[in-house]
């Protein structure tokens, strides 16, 4: 029997509803809180709110030695804290992701997975003419007495959730164009034999009118034999967009699961409403009310939102 999942009525992140207890809040729009039963919020070392504002002096000193000055805390990442920092030699901004609890095996595996994927030469835009999708990794540190950290490109843009919310009068044509570009970005990633596995509105950025993808802590190779895909029994996923079989740990992630999540993201792009807050029986009418062409509703979105499907084409034209 599947576990019942509940979501906060307004989808906010400040006071997410909990189905476990008040000590284990569940936010359907975040992967680091985890689906019901995963308890990844604590498993990733994020259970102590006081830790979220802590930057130990040793780690900060090491960052300064590497030419970085921490400016301010931005957010929690998939396994720790994200800071905005300034590179002292160039004055450019950097994103610094710091692992809170390196003793935690789940958190460390997530950190190492992101480090490995972002170091991959097969990422789009690294050694080819394609636009760069993932943030550029400048360097990482693990050990030396400091908390492990990654220093990444600072992507100065908005995530899709905020970008759409700030543009309520955006035309349906413009929204469809954005959906096509989102599908295309993930198709490019898949063509490089990579899966993101945590597709969500907050992990898709719009930067200089381009789609960028962030938070690769759950990513893996598409091919079954890749070790990292099977090294951790559960990876952080976003409950609002993940397929049921990923939430129930019945799938480690496939292109079909990924396209399912992309379709749910596009539902929000097209309607301004999170799919998990709309009864599935009303998905068709909600899309129709937003003037989405019937062919896209029936052939592209609804089949993929209903369940992961082997047919991963996206005829958004």
From TrEMBL:
- The enzyme class is transferase
Please tell me whether the keyword Kinase is annotated for this protein: yes
Give EC number(s), comma-separated: 2.7.11.1
Locate the Protein kinase domain: which residues? 68-317
Q: Which InterPro entries match?
A: Kinase-like_dom_sf, Prot_kinase_dom, Tyr_kinase_AS
According to the record, the residues making up region (Disordered) are: 1-36
What would be one Pfam family of this protein? Pkinase
The yes or no answer to whether the keyword Manganese is present is no
User: What keywords does the record list, in alphabetical order?
Assistant: Kinase, Transferase
Q: What is this protein called?
A: Serine/threonine-protein kinase PrkC
């Amino acid at each position: 029997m599947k576990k019942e999942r509940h979501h906060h009525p307004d989808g906010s992140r400040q006071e997410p509803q909990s189905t476990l207890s008040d000590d284990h809040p569940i936010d359907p729009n975040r992967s680091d809180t985890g689906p019901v039963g995963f308890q990844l919020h604590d498993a990733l070392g994020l259970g102590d709110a006081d830790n979220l504002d802590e930057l130990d002096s040793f780690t900060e000193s090491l960052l300064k030695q590497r030419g970085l000055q921490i400016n301010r805390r931005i957010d929690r990442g998939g396994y720790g804290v994200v800071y905005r920092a300034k590179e002292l030699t160039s004055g450019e901004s950097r994103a610094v992701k710091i692992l809170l609890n390196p003793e935690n095996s789940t958190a460390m595996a997530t950190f190492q997975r992101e480090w490995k994927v972002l170091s991959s030469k097969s990422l789009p835009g690294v050694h080819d003419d394609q636009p760069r999708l993932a943030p550029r990794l400048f360097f990482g540190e693990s050990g030396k007495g400091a908390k492990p950290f990654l220093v990444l490109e600072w992507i100065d843009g908005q995530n899709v959730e905020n970008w759409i919310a700030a543009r309520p009068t955006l035309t349906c044509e413009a929204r469809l164009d954005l959906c096509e570009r989102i599908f295309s970005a993930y198709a490019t990633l898949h063509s490089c034999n990579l899966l993101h596995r945590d597709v969500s509105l907050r992990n898709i950025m719009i930067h200089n009118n381009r789609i960028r993808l962030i938070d690769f802590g759950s990513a893996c190779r598409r091919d079954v034999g890749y070790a990292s895909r099977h090294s951790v029994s559960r990876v952080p996923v976003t409950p609002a967009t993940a397929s049921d079989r990923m939430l129930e740990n019945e799938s480690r992630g496939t292109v079909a699961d990924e396209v399912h999540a992309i379709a749910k993201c596009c539902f929000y792009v097209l309607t301004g409403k999170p799919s998990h807050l709309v009864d599935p029986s009303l998905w068709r009418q909600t899309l129709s009310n937003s003037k989405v062409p019937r062919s896209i509703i029936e052939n592209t979105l609804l089949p993929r939102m209903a369940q992961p499907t082997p047919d991963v084409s996206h005829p958004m034209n």
